[in-house]
Amino acid sequence: MPTLHTTIAAVTDRIVERSRPTRSAYLALMDDEAERGIRRPQLGCANLAHAYAGTEEDRDAQCAATGMNIGIVTAYNDMLSAHAVYYRYPEQMKVWAREAGATAQVAGGVPAMCDGVTQGYAGMELSLFSRDTIALSTAVALSHGTFEGAALLGICDKIVPGLIMGALRFGHLPMILIPGGPMPSGLPNKAKAAVRERYAEGKAGREELLGAEIQAYHGKGTCTFYGTANTNQMMMEVMGLHMPGAAFVNPGTKLRQALTRAAVHRLAAIGARGDDYRPLGRCIDERAVVNAAVGLLATGGSTNHLLHLPAMARAAGIVIDWEDFDRLSGAVPLMARVYPNGSADVNGFEAAGGMAFVIRELLGEGLLHGDILTVAGDGLAAYGEKPYLDGDTLVWRDPGATGDDTILRPAASPFAPDGGMRILQGNIGRACIKVSAVERERWVVEAPARVFEDQSDVLAAFKAGDLEQDVVVVVRFQGPRANGMPELHKLTPPLSVLQNRGFQVALVTDGRMSGASGKVPAAIHVSPEALGGGAIGLIRDGDLIRIDANAGTLDALVDPAEWAAREQAPAPAPASGMGRELFGLFRGHSDEAEKGASAILAGGGM
């Protein structure tokens, strides 16, 4: 195996040292949980009778307790295309568990909201904290003490991070993430974006826009652009938590079914009773977390994982910060061009070689930890092969050369020498920017500020023609404590239109951008946030704002004495309706974006 790249090694060592107290405490807790033994034999007869009452076909096997009882935690609903595929999974998985001498039960369900449905509306303010709710729901599902392993069924934006955060409280158990795959390709993403921009300009009507959106999002499976949902699947592969190659196989195919069956069989084989014990809390270590960050950078993945990966890591006692991402970005090449960083979708990415190609290449350059404990076997090398069906037999083979070098390139000849994620720091605060889809000449923007406290006001100003100029749009009071940190994806079309008209345009916000952050430079996750005194609350209309992704700076070009004398903008009143008032406890206790913007992790609660 090639020598580990010096930057990867240095960042890993930095994380290990920083995390030593919290990681040791986490592992001690998991060791204590494991030493208590398998819980089912310790439960009273009435307790077990309640647990088995709904499982007549498996009851005798469960009472005998000779095999693993697998808890299925599912995010199924049929409102969310990516999770609609899970409808029949539990009944199939029960059959496959019996084949392996195990049993399976649905332990519980977790909420699975769709940012695509709530984008730009009040429900989006529940989105980020749905992740904490999912973590709590996962813990409740596994709290019965009747499972020796778990299968986690989830794909989309907050669902996978939430499942991981909750499951890590039961990190003494083996667990496998089971995806459902992306929907087949529909209307190309570039064509869809063009209709959105024409609609923003008033050149397309609602009927045309709806038609285009339905052609793009037309069936079961994940959306096909490379946003947060598909970035989740990439990360589960480079962390070794899927069956190898499971990420981007379409739903309803024989290969997809074979991979799910193999996952159930494999889960039954890696429990504490056997000789190949692979508990989740040991699989997710500092090396696996670094692998996830490397994969994110190498593929141009979602900016949302600058929140989610720190949160998942902290649930395992591991502390990663934005400086780690920034250092890694300088060493990790950009190997993939998938929309919004290119014209291809994830189906094109998979056809060109997919995650097997990426992992094989990164391992070959010493850019991944190959020696992590994976659910599939010894090390990460198995994930450098693609799955195929040879008749009815599931096999894995080397992916060969890239199938399309406009989508996927070797690590030695990438699209860019770095991963395109950067930290920005200055008198406005600390922020992140993703530049992999931004043209180089737009990495520096210096323009007057227009300040807003609601994205709907930005849209209204655009429609009124009030933004027809060089402009830095500042949208504040969008942080986790203010309103739950909604994505501001609805701003992408109008800001893109302004940029296309020749203006210098950028966004500065303490909120999130979509996982499909695109061609407009955006300084996001500004910390400290406006609520509570962040300097973004000092910006006034007309202030000259400079964003410099080359130098890594984010500044208001205001006289320092005047800047220091300014008072904070008053915070808007908390919004109510659409259930937002129920999440006041989460908002009030959330930690900062760089730590994961979580309420349940704040203060070391996990």
From TrEMBL:
The keyword Hydrolase does not apply. It is an enzyme of class 4 (lyase). It comes from the Bacteria. Signal peptide: none annotated. SUPFAM superfamilies: IlvD/EDD N-terminal domain-like, LeuD/IlvD-like. GO terms for biological process: D-gluconate metabolic process; Entner-Doudoroff pathway through 6-phosphogluconate. It catalyses: 6-phospho-D-gluconate = 2-dehydro-3-deoxy-6-phospho-D-gluconate + H2O. Binds 1 [4Fe-4S] cluster. Its EC number is 4.2.1.12. InterPro entries: 6-phosphgluc_deHydtase, Dihydro-acid_dehy_C, DiOHA_6PGluconate_deHydtase_CS, ILV_EDD_C, ILV_EDD_N, IlvD/EDD_N. Residues 69-381 form the Dihydroxy-acid/6-phosphogluconate dehydratase N-terminal domain. This is Phosphogluconate dehydratase. The lineage of its organism: Bacteria, Pseudomonadati, Pseudomonadota, Alphaproteobacteria, Sphingomonadales.
